[in-house]
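TICKET #2291
ISSUE: user wants both folds in one file
ATTACHMENT 1:
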Amino acid sequence: MEEPESFAAPRSQRALIDFLASIANDKGHFCIISSHSGVIAERIPNEAIQLCARNGQQVTFTPNPAPNLLVDRIAFYLRRRFASLVEDQAAKSFCRALTEYLDPRVAADLDIFVAGSNGEISTALKTIQPDSGERLLLVGVYDGDQKNSIPGDLKWPAICLPGGTNPDQIFRELVQRNATTQIAHALGFTDAQIVNALSGLEGTDNHDWTNRLCQSLDISIAQFFRKLVPLWISTNEELAQEFQRELRRSLKLG
């Protein structure tokens, strides 16, 4: 296939390469593509690339060319990966749901890891050495109640989730503050199912409350936060937008 970028926009080029890869894998076909499109090259493993260049009256081929060479020659896009460290599963689910809702393009490149505690987040951010090539950018995402407790000697940026407390408490209060019908609609259940699930949860701590409610409804913690985040944002939009701005700044996205 010769220079498919001549007939396709960048998004279509990505889709075309994905389609060709699928066909080649399913049918065992071998495909040769000549292209000067960085968009196409970024979808292909480096070991499958031969860089063609003029050498006087001849032509030379460089197998498995270095990424920086591709950047220089064909505007190859060096995709950066983003990673964040959070305290627990609730924080991971809240961070993921917020980012997917407000900034899907960042969410697609963001991996979120549970550190286990605020102290473990700090330890990792002090220990892991920054990548000089900036192919991986790391950010610590603490619970909202840690805003004034973040250490000042971290090697990576750190921000806090929106709200002045932990995600479990934020969403417990959200459920308690809103009408049962509204919560049931957001989660995809009947009023009776929500009432039954909430019965018996009084007196439990916030972390157990989230876990037990999700178990009773037979949904994951990630589903719980993803479905309720739009409702939370509807009355906390400025907090949500400020968090996303801080996250983008930390990831050097402006």
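ATTACHMENT 2:
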Amino acid sequence: MPTFKYKALKDDGSAYEDTAQAPSKEVLYQRLKKKDESLVTAEIAGQAGDMARWRRTINSYLSGVSQKDKIMFARNIGAMIDAGLPMSRALDVINRQTNNIALQEVVASIQDTIEAGGSLSAGLQKHQDVFSSLFVQMVRAGEESGNLPEAFDTIATQIKRSYTLKKKIRGAMMYPAIILVAMILVGIAMMIYVVPTLSSTFKEMNVDLPASTQLVITISDFLQNYTIVSLAGIAGAFAGLWGIAQTSRGKRAFEWLLLSMPLVGPLVKQTNAARTARTLSSLLSSGVNVVHALEITEGVVQNSYYEEVLAEAQKAVKHGEPLAQVFQDHEDLYPPFVGEMAAVGEETGKTASMLKRVAEFYEEEVKQKTDDMSTIVEPFLMIVIGVVVGFFAISMISPMYSLTGKI
């Protein structure tokens, strides 16, 4: 029977640590529960426990607190608070439920804050690397309004929608990226290993080579003679582009390029429209004032052009101007539907619900566009691959016909 090293809370709220033998963590939890005590953490003591802890710790810190972990945290704690469980007990259950060491440490820290008399939002705010400003502010609004379960439900929905949107876009981009990389690697392999063999044959037979074949052989000779330099150059070019993209000017240039591209531009605009509308709707429905909601949303969009629009919107709202007017003045970034729905919302006093409809509309549009993009990109890639392979084949086969004629 394993020995557990555990931390528990007594019925007066004081914490203590001890060891005990039990068949499982659940049995230990039930035993402590009978004594009106709450289990906070429990780990198998000794070498086996150390190894298990070590493996879970490495895995947890490599992955961190994922979006799925945050969704689970928000949904479960909201449900438990709604069921009437005290906050400390709800956090205790979350801590025992997750196997993520990083999240367990965060939850334990939040428990310490609450036991010291602090609020849940204050505990969350100490971990801004895990919980975004949006998450914290919505919890704070829920605390002030006395409606934490609804706030957590909204947070879980917000994170899930955002996560699904990112995953969908990433999935649409992944296939062409893999095909492109594979095509480059195969091309390099052909140039290094296949072309030199044919090139030596052509030289031995003194075949007149067309310009296209000479170009292929020249590239092949360079890659063969300077393989390391060529690979280092390619890696350096990618690293240089990545470095430039990390600078403010480079990032802005990259964002402008994405917004200007035929297929990608509309997708970027609709994604940011959905993200802006979803975030503002969630915050406004939770009771956060418009200016503060815009400030938080500015940090969510992650695009300098949209950040500038939202910063402008904050100033406009402070001066008593309608929010919808700002969206309408920037229809090059926000589709007209956003401004019109925001205007209707402000006129009827239902801005949050109108923006929620905007978010749902554009989230569905993004989903449809990513599906369409996959359908369009696949044949386009096949055409590109066909042209490259055709050029290579013709370049290397045409001298063979000359060779056959000489024979």
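RESOLUTION: both attachments delivered.
EXTRA DETAIL ON ATTACHMENT 2: The longest strand covers residues 3-9.
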